[in-house]
Design brief:
heterodimer, A: mainly alpha, B: mainly alpha
């Protein structure tokens, strides 16, 4: 993986992470009137620094610490790191989708003259525990795929192309999630826009 | 630990998921991401427009033009003949879309959330709080 590709991956991770933190800040402000999230921010910064260090520290980690400085292992390391970043994009986009959905549910409830606690109870449980379950499942999926592939390589051996094909297939699995989540967020954004426009017209009338 | 049940899957992927198949799948997915991103950012800008119109705020025309540029570049993803060219073109397209999205979220989030908070505050308080 070239330095350009690594830099773009880390830049996108940073950009998506920043969007996630800002959207959560907005959600907290809309819900409670306060937007402090120091622990959440600290957690995100720690994760980002760790992933950046792992991405750019291949030569040190794979070469010196693990003593596996051959081309195939380097390609497994780079491919696995790229796949981890892809998994994190799915997690971040999923989190943004949940925050936007919570904003939409709150607005819809308020604009339909209902009390927020009553109509959004079921959704609240899903949006509170759903993300943690989904996040755990995605990370478990990442670990399972790569451990299973490692076991396959140990048994059957593998050339550079075998490693490359199998690791790139994982990106396409993540791609399906990105597309589904992004379309879901786009549809929620359309719903929020229509709600606000209707509210604006009602206010003007 | 054995993963024998998944071995046939890896055998097929390792042999069949060639760079050509990967590029084709990436092209299809790239078009679908870009279409989703364009729709999402367009309606985000429309939401900001609604907020701005209620506050008599500034127009956000330039961001619509940038989004249009990214939309016009998107069909060129189909003609990318190498993974490297595809990645660079994708970086430009998504770079523009991310720049617009990031700028909008960073700059307009305060005014947008204040507007949405004001809508939520208009809500009648629950009976036990009255």
């Amino acid at each position: 993986m070239s330095v350009f590709m690594k830099s773009m991956a880390i830049f996108w991770l940073f950009a998506e992470g920043l969007i996630m933190v800002l959207v959560r800040k907005g959600l907290l402000y809309i819900e409670t009137g306060r937007s402090r999230q120091h622990s959440y921010l600290l957690f995100c910064v720690c994760v980002f620094i760790t992933v950046t260090a792992l991405t750019f520290g291949r030569d040190l980690i794979a070469g010196r610490l693990l003593g596996m400085a051959d081309t195939v292992f380097y390609s497994i390391y780079d491919g696995s790191m790229w796949n981890l970043i892809c998994t994190m994009w799915v997690i971040i986009e999923g989190a943004v989708a949940v925050y936007i959905l919570r904003i939409y549910i709150l607005l819809k409830t308020v604009l339909n003259n209902q009390l927020p606690g009553k109509s959004s109870g079921r959704f609240r449980v899903v949006t509170l525990f759903g993300p943690a379950v989904a996040c755990g499942a995605l990370l478990a999926g990442f670990v399972f795929y790569h451990f299973a592939f490692h076991a396959y390589l140990c048994q059957h051996g593998g050339t550079f192309s075998v490693v490359d094909n199998a690791l790139k297939f994982y990106i396409k699995i993540c791609g399906i999630f990105w597309i589904l989540i992004e379309w879901a967020v786009a549809l929620i954004a359309i719903q929020i826009f229509l709600l606000l426009k209707r509210n604006l017209k009602r206010g003007a009338a | 630990m054995t993963f024998s049940f998944i071995e046939p899957f890896f055998s097929v992927i390792a042999k069949g998921f060639s760079p050509a198949v990967y590029l084709l799948a990436t092209k299809i997915q790239g078009l679908m991401w870009s279409a989703a991103d364009i729709t999402l950012i367009f309606f985000l800008l429309k939401i900001v427009d609604v907020v701005m119109s209620s506050k008599d705020g500034k127009k956000i025309t330039i961001r619509y033009y940038l989004l249009l540029v990214s939309a016009m570049l998107t069909p060129f993803l189909i003609v990318a003949d190498t993974a490297d060219f595809f990645f660079r073109l994708e970086s430009i397209i998504f770079g523009i879309q991310f720049a617009v999205l990031l700028y909008t979220v960073c700059v307009d989030i305060k005014i947008a959330t204040a507007y949405l908070r004001s809508i939520v505050n208009d809500l009648p308080s629950p009976p036990h709080e009255r």
